[in-house]
Fold this protein.
Amino acid sequence: MLIIRGVNVFPSQIESVLLEMNETNPHYQLIIDRVNNLDVLEVWVEVDGQFFSDEIKKIGRSEKEDSA
């Protein structure tokens, strides 16, 4: 369990959200840092090869489909 800005964060919660997304592989890395005395959490994910594109429009379209 991680405590980020007073909130309990379980890595298993992050993993379950990532597994729901078709665009990501189940490989991720959590980066925890402290900036100006505040904890910061970054989640780095591996994008599935079939969804990888250098075109921003395709990535944006994929994000919109997930939120719908």
